[in-house]
User: Which sequence fits this backbone?
């Protein structure tokens, strides 16, 4: 059920990525920076900034041109797979203990609604909060940035 919820929430965010023309890496926001250390196609750890593409504000780094071609053959499926990798990597260190939208605490016994905004894993307490987030994500990303900065500060001490 958790995987289905994640997939459904991602489908809401993917629509514009399919028609997007690759953009400049300079135009990518902090949330769009590539967070993984592996190629999203083959899993190779030798990724290079010379093999970087931007899809709808999301930076993706590959190990080579062949993987770029493979990724773009079915962009929707590739982006969904990328989101799964991002969620797996970021879930254990997710900085917020409350819903990014309403601020309610997350019930550890209840299944959270998971999504990926640009290249950042995000959790919600309910579908209504996910819908609110999808209408205007920039309204809520400051909450996550603040939590991430606080978490990074605690780790330094």
Assistant:
């Amino acid at each position: 059920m958790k995987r289905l919820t994640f997939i459904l929430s991602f489908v809401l965010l993917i629509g514009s990525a399919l028609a997007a023309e690759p953009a400049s890496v300079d135009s990518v926001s902090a949330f769009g920076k590539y967070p993984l250390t592996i190629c999203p196609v083959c899993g190779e750890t030798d990724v290079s900034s010379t093999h970087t593409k931007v899809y709808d504000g999301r930076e993706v780094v590959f190990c080579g041109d062949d993987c770029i071609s493979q990724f773009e053959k079915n962009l929707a499926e590739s982006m969904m797979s990328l989101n799964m990798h991002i969620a797996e990597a970021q879930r254990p260190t997710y900085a917020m203990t409350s819903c990014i939208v309403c601020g309610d605490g997350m019930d550890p016994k209840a299944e959270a609604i998971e999504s990926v905004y640009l290249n950042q894993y995000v959790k919600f307490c309910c579908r209504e909060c996910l819908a609110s987030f999808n209408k205007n994500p920039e309204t809520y990303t400051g909450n996550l940035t603040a939590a991430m900065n606080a978490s990074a500060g605690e780790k330094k001490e």
